[in-house]
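Dear colleague,

Following up on Tuesday's group meeting, I ran the structure prediction for the two-component complex that the binding team flagged. I've pasted the input sequences exactly as they went in, so you can double-check that nothing got truncated or mislabelled along the way. The structure tokens for the whole assembly follow below. Feel free to forward this to whoever is handling the docking comparison.

Inputs:
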Amino acid sequence: AQTVTQSQPEMSVQEAETVTLSCTYDTSESDYYLFWYKQPPSRQMILVIRQEAYKQQNATENRFSVNFQKAAKSFSLKISDSQLGDAAMYFCAYIGGGSNYKLTFGKGTLLTVNP
Amino acid sequence: NAGVTQTPKFRILKIGQSMTLQCTQDMNHNYMYWYRQDPGMGLKLIYYSVGAGITDKGEVPNGYNVSRSTTEDFPLRLELAAPSQTSVYFCASRPGTGDNEKLFFGSGTQLSVL
């Protein structure tokens, strides 16, 4: 079974600084997708960024980028120029590209942004 | 489009009561999911469906039932509520075709069983 591990229960960053959230996963599949979701206090799940395993290029969305290391099964999220609105719980998630229909989540990392 | 709509947003149940959490999506998505979120535990899959008439168990199905009579609706039934079912429940959907694996989430239901 696929597992997703986020080893940092909590992280903090100063406003305008850069922070990296860690995620590792375990799978025997070669085709899969990885995601970072943001959950602010409003409870809404917001997709931040997604990465296809077959793409070597790291995904980027404005201030958010990933470091995808397929061989190491690592998928970290970098937030540049952190803003107060980035404060939230961040979840790493995995879904197989074959017949695995289920999205598996890590336990989350609570990010605090200090002014 | 409304996306994924969950009702109710909040509910308090007494032990042993039953209720149905409603979920509907207007995006014609094939795949639908029910997750529960406990504090510090991330999201755990309860049940999922790959199309109308087809459902399957996830990680934590005990105490719940689902049905999928239409593409749009995927209700979650709690038959005998227990305190261990106090949680936030999320419904989600995705197309299931092509390479768009993005999940669309509802806004969640906060359920307390006392």
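Chain B has a mean pLDDT of 92.

Cheers,
M.
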